[in-house]
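Q: Predict the assembly, please.
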Amino acid sequence: MWETKIPPWLYSRIFVSWKRVNREVEVLEKVFKKFGAKRLIELGCGVGRQGYLMYKKGFEILLTDVADWRFGVARNLPFRKYDVLRGGDIGVFDGGYALGLMIIFTYRDMVKALKNVKKLIVEGGPFVFDYNFTTYNEPREVNVKVRGRNYRALLKRETVEPIVGGVLYKYRIEVVDDEGNIVGVEDTAYPVYNKEVIMSAIRESGWKIETIIWAKWDPIKYLYTLSKHEADSAFIVLKNLVE
Ligand SMILES: C[S@@+](CC[C@H](N)C(=O)[O-])C[C@H]1O[C@@H](n2cnc3c(N)ncnc32)[C@H](O)[C@@H]1O
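A: Predicted assembly structure:
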């Protein structure tokens, strides 16, 4: 199971730059406007920056995550703890989205999560999630400055093992301060499936694909660039059609 022991104030600076978040929110904004969806739920919001920008753009957002580790401005937004693998009644929304969430799940959990999310979205409404079909998506080294101090996030180890339909990607990132102290560790793993497997999980969970917005993942800048052609990553837009 994916987990991080990098504190939120550092995690947000290293992995969730406003530049990255802006890119993702531009995609979400277009999709939800097209659907006329205003009341949205975000699953696995993490530090909450995407939700904050969506709120600034005028959407009504409920942030959710299995744990509340929101940081900074996102702490002022409505939030509920919600485990997408357990499901449960949390309301019905015009649309929903999850970034960096489906990627951490095994096939079975992905199907479970997609089925649970289906119950949270109105009939005909959209659910958007991103998926990265490649393995080497953790940055080798990232330098950030926080309150006058330098921090370096270093990829210390990574391994890739074959599994059915893809690979299991294991890695260890250590964040060190300017005195060499380790101030955060992310030592974890997640499966990376190929496109066919993801399409199969979508079918099995009963969602219909509305559209696929292709993107290229830049592991150095740690953000997406949209692509006109099929690429290593995608924002997958699903529509909740009742069979
Ligand atoms: C890789 S982080 C992505 C965070 C954020 N969405 C982003 O794009 O930066 C995965 C997030 O999923 C959350 N998460 C893990 N398992 C979950 C579950 N079963 N239900 C809801 N959220 C979960 C974690 O707490 C974490 O915030």
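The pocket of S-adenosylmethionine is lined by residues 16, 43-46, 65-67, 83-85, 99-101, 104 (CB under 6 Å). The chain has two domains: 8-133+193-239, 141-191.
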